[in-house]
Amino acid sequence: MPAAIDATHDPALTSWVESANDPAADFPIQNLPLCAFEVSHDGHTHNHLGVAIGDSVLDLTSFAESRQLEHLWAQHADPALIECLFMGDWSVLLSEVPAATVRLLAQSLLRADAPAGQPVRRARQKALRGIDGLAFAPPLAVGNYTDFYASVHHATTVGSMFRPDNPLLPNYKWVPIGYHGRASSVVASGTPIRRPLGQTKADDAAEPAFGPCKLLDYELELGLFVGRANALGEPVPLSHAEDHMLGVVLLNDWSARDIQKWEYQPLGPFLAKNFATTISPFLVTMEALAPFRCPAAQRPSGDPRPLPYLADDADRQRGGLDITVEVLLLTEKMRHDGLQPQRLSRGTARDLYWTFAQMLAHHTSNGCNLQVGDLLGSGTISGPTPDSRGCLLELTWDGPGKPRRPVALPTGETRTFLQDGDEVILRGSCERQGFRRIGLGDCRGVVIPAPAGPARN
Ligand code: CA
């Protein structure tokens, strides 16, 4: 069952971190996403754990180290939690302590009406770090990464480019389609993305060539982190899948379309996808998302009923996520001219044909074991309208046989695919009457030139 709405979502709660009380803030006290970042001291770099609050991060690791606060920890925190904070690894911590407990503890430390007195608050302020100055890591070390294809609108538009008469393959509405991606190249927001080299073949060329990707694209997705393992050989039933879901991040599945087009048959994506995947550094927990759960997307009449292992009433009623997601672009020239990023598209995770619980249940249905820190991508989130297409492959497509229609930018520049110096920014947020807005933070990456590397062509 999805997490319940409770007192931690009370919109009247405020924080003594003033920036968190701005109604436009992504990280009010009702959110408190988990993050990890690098801190240098004693000549070494350490991984610290924290929660985002307003424009800052509460550095829980530094806080745990603060001896004068031991009495407070003894009062609030599980000893296992303190031990894990020193280790700097949420995966270890969350194997011992539920994420809900961590969120509750952080909320008790950050509430404006916290019972602890001013001396404690002053000490806490030493553990507050500005988000802008931090070098973030992925919130959890990513063990395995799987990317799904859960947007029927994305699958239909992309399918119609290759099969105008039969865009959606017959398995789509029966089975959540996915492939195993690569965990080693999942990076946190802000990491530059090097244009990949690869093998491509132009339609009119006799032979393929090797060189820099010419059709570099982004994909707007959500990533789900697994928070509880299942044993090898023991599937997670759909009715229990939510218990294994830790929270979500934004995910940019960078894609080399020209490499993809040549290599994908017959085994699917490979080097066109695994050179980089960017995720936002703030893991918004399923508890924080409780007010923003919604019914799973309505299946058009005539669609098949999912097989029993993919059907569950609670999942139909509350398995969806009401998260608005958008893509913005900032070119080098726009940055130079002091312009703001331009929005390219906006969509919603409500439109996904499969819920994350269905994806997780399906992933384990053959006995495959998921582990804490595994990452499941939703697939490109596109909606039914052209302004909600979540990648350039779809956004600049103008119909079969027609030339692509480039995106126009305020500098007079145009884009059909990404150029070096372009920064792609993903954003996501949740709003509902009677609740505080929460956001997912930025997921950013700048494209940098391909390596000089091996001989081209
Ligand atoms: Ca993808």
What do you see in this structure?
The strands form 7 sheets. Strands 6, 7, 8, 13, 14, 16, 17 and 22 form an 8-stranded mixed β-sheet that branches. Strands 9, 20, 21, 25, 26 and 27 form a 6-stranded mixed β-sheet that branches. A 5-stranded antiparallel β-sheet has the order 4-3-2-1-5. It has 12 helices and 27 strands. It has 2 domains: 131 residues, SH3 type barrels (Roll); 304 residues, Fumarylacetoacetate hydrolase, domain 2 (Alpha-Beta Complex). The model has no long low-confidence stretch (mean pLDDT 93). It has 457 residues and is of the alpha+beta class. The termini are far apart. 20% of the residues lie in helices and 25% in strands. Bound molecules: calcium ion. The site of calcium ion (CA) has 7 residues, from loops. Calcium ion binds next to loops.
Question: How is the secondary structure organized here?
Answer:
Layout: E1 34-41, E2 44-53, E3 56-59, H1 60-65, H2 70-76, H3 79-87, H4 90-96, H5 99-110, H6 118-126, E4 128-130, E5 135-137, E6 145-148, H7 152-162, E7 178-180, E8 186-188, E9 193-194, E10 197-200, E11 209-212, E12 216-217, E13 220-226, E14 245-252, E15 255-256, H8 257-263, E16 277-279, E17 284-285, E18 293-294, H9 313-318, E19 320-321, E20 324-330, H10 332-336, E21 342-348, H11 356-364, E22 375-377, H12 392-395, E23 407-408, E24 414-415, E25 423-430, E26 438-439, E27 443-448
Parallel strand pairs: 6-22, 8-16, 9-27
Antiparallel strand pairs: 1-2, 1-5, 2-3, 3-4, 6-7, 10-11, 12-15, 13-14, 13-22, 14-16, 14-17, 18-19, 20-21, 20-25, 23-24, 25-26, 25-27
Calcium ion (CA) binds next to loops.
